[in-house]
Amino acid sequence: MNKLFRKTEKILYIYPDIMDHNNEFIDRLEESINKLSESDYQIIEYKYFEQMTHEEIAEELDIDPKTVTRRKNRIIKRLSFMLFPDDAIEELKNE
Asked: What's the rounded Cα separation, in Å, for the pair 46 and 4?
């Protein structure tokens, strides 16, 4: 899942710049983000939209930085499956 993981992260980093564009993929991205729990959304918002470090996020949420990393990775994997289901399944088959 490394390729899709990185692809999803790149999309999240540029999302604030492209969110006003009207197309099917951005709609799917917004739907996927909206399905996140509030606490998961906060991590995505802080990391990708506000570009905070894991340490800053941990301080803001009063959790351990390692927990931020684990949760962020889990969220990105979930978003990858929502955004690119066919590619995600193909990557899993090839692992």
From this structure: 21
